[in-house]
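ok trying this again, last paste got cut off
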Amino acid sequence: MLKNLAMPLSLAALLLAGCDPAPPLPKPTPTAPKTDYLARINKLTPQQRSATFYRAIEDAGFICDSVAASDPQDPVQGHPAWDARCGDGQHWTLVLFDDGILQVLKAARSSGDSAGAPGNKM
């Protein structure tokens, strides 16, 4: 009985092997517009910017009671950056990447020690 089934199954497999494979699917093209995050931050009022930077510092796992002030600083590896000063005197460097992520780095100490927070080396 198996011999009787083997012949038709072999013939079917041989016929299917000769079929053309499905054409490759086209690569998807990005349709979402690129957001200019720097322009969005620059449009914020100082209070909104302080709240945004506070949230970024807290989300990074650092403690900051409030962002008292923030100032633009020289770009870090070509990315826009700000110095944020918390109400408790701590300084943080916030670096804006192209995808809108703000990376939080411990700012250099005023005593000249440029050691950053562990795990935050760029």
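PB: full thing came through this time. Residues 32-106 form one domain.
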